[in-house]
């Protein structure tokens, strides 16, 4: 099973050498079975198998700065299955780490993957969390990542979610972040929907501390009969708080997209802005690419790839 899973996660950029390197922390789990795990100095990592998934607690100790990303691999290899993940992650003051999550469901016909995460980034800590998904080509995955995130003073939290190869199936993202003074938050989502894929993204940032900053950035491309609904919420409640919501959705064929940016300011010295663009590919960009010898189909593909990069 481990060899099969290692082969499956290659599409998300995870090579076998990563999991053989003693200097790189990792957790690898299929369904409710832990296949491999390793920690490194300064990183407390406890993972347990549950009836229907995995429960993990991760603590990066005060002042520790990891030189290599922590790799977390979750997946279901069967056509049908359930995986419930519970993660509790804490970065202690002045620590720094990046995490890369590889989530694969290559044969999904009726697979449910639920992720419940609680993340605390303490004073001056820096966390970068990148999540790369592959749901196969059958459209049978239901994936629901949920996160409650607390960023303490001068903390930094960047999260990226990418699903641009294969079908999506049904995706529901629900992230809720609260940031204290001088904290920085950046949330980026990139998804390409096909067929009858259904995509729902809801991200909220509450800038409750003075000088807190945030960016919610969503890039979605849709074709065939895919559907997407994006809600980006930013609240500014303190002096000097600055937030921006930026949503772009490209549609073709019979696809449908909606975007709801919600901004709320309760302090006269806070400022939150938003922009949303939904429509087909830019005609001028297409003409420029076609003048260089590309077919209309190739031009559209290049434009979409650029948006999702």
How does this structure look, described?
The protein is mostly beta strands and 309 residues long. The protein has one domain. It is 11% helix and 56% strand. It is built from four helices and 19 strands. The strands form two sheets. It has a ten-stranded mixed β-sheet, covered by helices on one side. A hairpin with a 2-residue loop joins strand 1 and strand 2.
Summarize the structure.
By secondary structure, this protein is mostly beta strands. 11% of the residues lie in helices and 56% in strands. The chain is built from 4 helices and 19 strands.
Low-confidence stretches: none
Number of domains: 1
> What is the spatial order of strands in the main beta sheet?
2-1-5-7-9-11-13-15-17-19
Number of helices: 4
The radius of gyration is 20 Å
Average pLDDT, rounded to a whole number, is 95
Instruction: Give the helix level as a range of percent.
Output: 10-25%
The biggest sheet, with number of strands, parallel, antiparallel or mixed sense and barrel status, is:
10 strands, mixed
């Amino acid at each position: 099973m481990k060899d099969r899973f290692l082969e499956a996660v290659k599409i998300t950029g995870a090579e076998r050498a990563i999991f053989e390197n003693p200097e790189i922390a990792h957790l690898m789990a299929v369904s409710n079975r832990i296949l491999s795990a390793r920690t490194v100095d300064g990183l407390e990592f406890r993972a347990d198998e549950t009836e229907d998934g995995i429960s993990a607690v991760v603590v990066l100790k005060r002042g520790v700065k990891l030189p290599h990303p922590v790799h977390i691999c979750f997946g279901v290899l069967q056509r049908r299955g359930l995986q419930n993940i519970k993660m509790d992650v804490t970065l202690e003051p002045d620590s720094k780490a990046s995490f890369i999550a590889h989530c694969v469901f290559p044969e999904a016909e009726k697979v449910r993957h639920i992720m419940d995460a609680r993340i605390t980034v303490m004073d001056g800590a820096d966390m970068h969390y990148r999540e790369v998904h592959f749901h196969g080509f059958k459209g049978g995955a239901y994936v629901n990542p949920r996160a409650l995130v607390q960023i303490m003073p001068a903390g930094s939290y960047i999260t990226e979610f990418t699903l641009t190869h294969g079908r999506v199936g049904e995706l529901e993202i629900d992230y809720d972040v609260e940031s204290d003074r001088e904290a920085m938050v950046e949330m980026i989502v990139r998804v390409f929907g096909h067929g009858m894929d259904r995509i729902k993204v809801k991200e909220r940032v509450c800038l409750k501390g003075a000088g807190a900053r945030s960016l919610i950035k969503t890039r979605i491309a849709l074709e065939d009969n895919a559907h997407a609904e994006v809600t980006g919420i930013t609240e500014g409640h303190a002096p000097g708080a600055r937030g921006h919501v930026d949503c772009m959705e490209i549609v073709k064929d019979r696809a449908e997209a909606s975007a709801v940016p919600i901004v709320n300011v309760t302090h006269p010295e806070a400022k939150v802005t938003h922009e949303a663009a939904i429509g087909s590919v830019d005609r001028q960009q297409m003409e420029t690419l076609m003048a260089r010898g590309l077919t209309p189909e190739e031009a559209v593909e290049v434009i979409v790839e650029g948006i999702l990069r």
